[in-house]
Write a structure and sequence with these properties.
Blueprint lengths: L2 E5 L4 E6 L4 H7 L10 E4 L5 H12 L3 E5 L4 E5 L7 E2 L1 H4 L9 H8 L1 E5 L12 H9 L3 E5 L2 E5 L8 E3 L5 H12 L4 E5 L5 H12 L3 E3 L5 E5 L7 E4 L4 H14 L1 E6 L8 H8 L2 E5 L3 E6 L9 E2 L11 H8 L5 E5 L9 H7 L3 E5 L2 E5 L8 E3 L3 H12 L4 E5 L2 H6 L3 H6 L4 E5 L4
Parallel strand pairs: 2-15, 3-14, 6-7, 10-11, 18-19, 22-23
Antiparallel strand pairs: 1-23, 1-24, 3-5, 4-5, 7-9, 8-9, 11-13, 12-13, 15-17, 16-17, 19-21, 20-21
Helix pairs in contact: 1-7, 4-6, 5-6, 6-7, 8-10, 8-12, 10-12
The chain binds uridine-diphosphate-N-acetylglucosamine.
Length: 423
């Protein structure tokens, strides 16, 4: 397995190009199942999660052509004839559950293994299941698989999500686009990835209003056509790299980054002393003074502080001035990076979903273990400002969500290299 070695060596200066959003692309790709005509995505990120979704769609009969080294994905659902999403693929990534709605809409039946993914909590599927049942599906769990059928076809309904689940909102947007009649989604997720999916579906002929608010109306249509759609910029990758100069100092321009996608995250950056300037091409980020100030963080659904940036923010708080309290409200087990940061000299106490971080002057390099996707990158960020060498083991999680991280940070002067593993 590959390792990443980082030697903290002072300020970062340079430009980083922001990739298309992994989470948007993972939701957009299954939309290819909804049409007989090709769906082409441009600005796709080159990540192992995207390759996993490609393999899953191919197993369902979708033809996928990757062009421009994977930056353009053209998918044809013309001969997609399989409705069984196999455990061997689905277990690698929770987002595989995003084929459930499209398969049901297309075939009137779907068999989808319960997903795996990052070990950050129980992550059940009840919200997806209840909502699809309200559209007329019958769903039961047998042998680790969800068996879903829609005997009379999917029919529009009023759905009031008990929680604004991102994945459930996406599954329902796709399923309801081909249902008979009108669907009203209440307490829908408002994340930018939802807006991106809705924009793409609208190009395909779907009739959707309200995406980006908590109430979305979908008027079902008989068929969807093909379309070409650019994947929105990755707000989590953006936020991650905004935090690199917060730890290491220097000034970094994030090309293609969009401030309007960042919600409460930018307010927290401002509060801890990080200056963000919008340019014609993206965002320029630097520290206002020296060490940043401690701030408290509570993770919430969009536009609140994203759970996917909590680990990275904790890495920043490890060397901030003062004590900060980080509360994780979206996932129940998302502090696995804390003991690894402690190995580097951080002072962190975790009680349930609350972590208290007392800033120290400097972290020291150490061998650490990447436990999940965002935890991995938080260790790299911490290492950029640490004294000595940090070896981040098990970086396959990182490759699921960050494109060429060592090249992007290396181009800004970071001393970072990948050591290829044997397997
Ligand atoms: C998506 C993102 C993930 C991000 C998360 C929250 C993708 C591919 N992944 O994940 O990076 O961290 O949004 O912003 O887009 N839940 C239930 N029952 C359900 C569904 C969810 O209890 O049926 C719970 C989950 O266990 C979790 C919370 O709701 O505690 C949030 O989940 P959800 O919004 O569905 O996240 P994902 O779509 O899985």
């Amino acid at each position: 397995m590959d390792k990443i070695v980082v030697r903290g060596n002072g300020p970062l200066n340079g430009r980083i190009e922001i990739s298309g959003a992994k989470n948007a692309c993972l939701a957009l790709m299954p939309a290819a199942l909804l049409s007989e005509e090709p769906l082409t995505l441009t600005n796709a990120p080159r990540l192992s999660d995207i390759r996993t979704m490609t393999t899953l769609l191919q197993s369902l009969g979708v033809e996928v052509a990757a062009m421009q080294a994977g930056k353009v994905l053209s998918m044809s659902g013309h001969s997609a004839d399989n409705h069984v999403a196999d455990y061997d693929i689905v277990r690698k990534m929770r987002a595989s559950n995003l084929v459930l709605g499209p398969l049901l809409a297309r075939h009137g039946q779907a068999v989808v293994s319960l997903p795996g993914g990052c070990a950050i909590g129980a992550r059940p599927m009840d919200i997806h299941i209840t909502a699809l049942e309200q559209l007329g599906a019958e769903i039961e769990l047998r042998d680790g698989y969800l068996h879903a059928t829609a005997p009379g076809g999917l029919k529009g309904a009023v759905i009031d999500f008990r929680f604004a689940s991102v994945g459930a909102t996406e599954n329902l947007l796709m399923a309801a686009s081909l249902a008979k009649g009108t669907t009203l989604l209440k307490n829908a997720a408002r994340e930018p990835e939802i807006v991106d999916l809705a924009d793409c579906l609208i190009k395909m002929g779907a009739r959707i209003e309200g995406a980006g608010t908590d109430t979305i109306t979908i008027e079902g249509v008989d068929r969807l056509r093909g379309a070409t759609h650019p994947v929105v910029a990755d707000r989590i990758e953006t936020g991650t790299y905004m935090l690199a100069p917060a730890i290491a100092g220097g000034e970094v321009e994030l090309v293609g980054a969009r401030l309007d996608l960042l919600g409460a995250f930018t307010e927290k950056l401002d509060a801890c002393g990080i200056e963000v300037t919008q340019t014609n091409t993206g965002l320029v980020v630097k520290r206002r003074n020296g060490r940043v100030d401690a701030v408290n963080v509570v993770t919430e659904v969009f536009p609140g502080f994203p759970t996917d940036l909590q680990a990275q923010m904790m890495a920043v708080m490890c060397t901030a001035k003062g004590t900060s309290v980080l509360e994780e409200r979206i996932f129940e087990n998302r502090f696995m990076h804390a003991p690894e940061l402690v190995r580097m000299g951080a002072q962190i106490e975790v009680h349930g979903g609350v972590a208290t971080v007392t800033g120290v002057d400097k972290l020291r390099g150490a061998p650490v273990m990447a436990t999940d996707l965002r935890a991995s990158v938080s260790l790299i960020l911490a290492a950029l400002g640490a004294e000595g060498e940090t070896v981040v083991n098990r970086v396959y999680h990182l490759d699921r969500g960050y494109e060429r991280v060592e090249e992007k940070l290396g181009a800004c002067g970071a001393d970072i290299e990948r050591i290829q593993g044997d397997d």
